Amino acid sequence: MKEDAAAIDTIKTEAARLRAILIGSVGNLVEWYDFYVYSAFSLYFADSFFPGEDPLAQMMSASGVFALGFLMRPIGAYVFGRIGDGRGRRAALMLSVLLMCLGSLLIALAPTYATIGVGAPATLLLARLVQGVSLGGEYGSSATYLAEMAQPERRGFYSSFQYVTMIAGQLLALCVLLVLQNVALDAQALRDWGWRIPFAFGALLAIVALYMRRDLVETPAFKASRAERRRGSLSALLAHKRETATVVGLTLGGTIAFYVYTTYMQKFLKLSVGLSDAETTWIAAGS
């Protein structure tokens, strides 16, 4: 009987662990969808916020706003890292997805340049800065949560779900674009108002993710850390300078290559090569 009860407890524990990992991963997917959908649809809304006759100049302006969002990611990582260490991983994960929801909703409802002038690109920039903070916080928080919830012998496997869901979120954004391009709307409708749909959809997904995350359990590692004093993360990194530099260097190179393929290539194929909108989307999704 004792063996049976222990087996049942183990099954329940593993089921709760897998559920927590699944919810954490789904939230990460939503965050990356919301962040990347800007890049996927910028070909359609750039002229709504940046008027002019030169499509290249409009895309450069929209891409500049996209780039500024990256400047906020280290800030988000630091702030949410402090929240995660002080208030818990669950609090950091819920706040990050809430901010992403607000950013997406702000873009979906943003007036155009024709309506409020320079207030339109300012609103777009504000939304992207909020999303940058959110994604910076999500990246580290979700990685920490997945690693701490996994069994030691499966930690690498479950932590990989963060990257899998990151790519899945970007593919979802491209799939939404393909549906709108080829099934739901014509090119003019997509430029006039259809580009708002994916941002509204992203805000809805973020609300669903927030609802799912409300019942996340705290990780055993966080509970244990509250009972002891630990030196700050920067001090820990400085104790391993070589390893830290290696990780930063590898991440830097991989990130540059990743965004060349996922972000720049779509604009290059459209504006420089001269492919159609649908062709650029199919190639971006396939790559």
- The third-level CATH topology of the largest domain is Growth Hormone, Chain: A
What is the correct CATH architecture of the largest domain? Up-down Bundle
The tally of domains stands at: 2
Summed over residues and divided by their number, the pLDDT gives a mean of 79
Number of extended strands: 0
- For the record, what is the CATH homologous superfamily label of the largest domain? MFS general substrate transporter like domains
CATH class category of the largest domain: Mainly Alpha
Overall, the morphology is globular
- Beta-strand percent range: under 5%
Structure summarized in a few sentences:
With 287 residues, this protein is mostly helical. 85% of the residues lie in helices and 0% in strands.
Can you tell me about this structure?
It is a single chain. The chain is mainly alpha-helical. It folds into 2 domains: 2-226, Growth Hormone, Chain: A (Up-down Bundle), CATH 1.20.1250; 231-287. It has helices at residues 2-49, 55-71, 73-86, 89-109, 113-116, 119-149, 155-159, 161-184, 187-194, 196-213, 220-225, 233-238, 241-273, 277-286. The model is unreliable at 1-12 (pLDDT under 50). The protein is globular, with a radius of gyration of 21 Å.
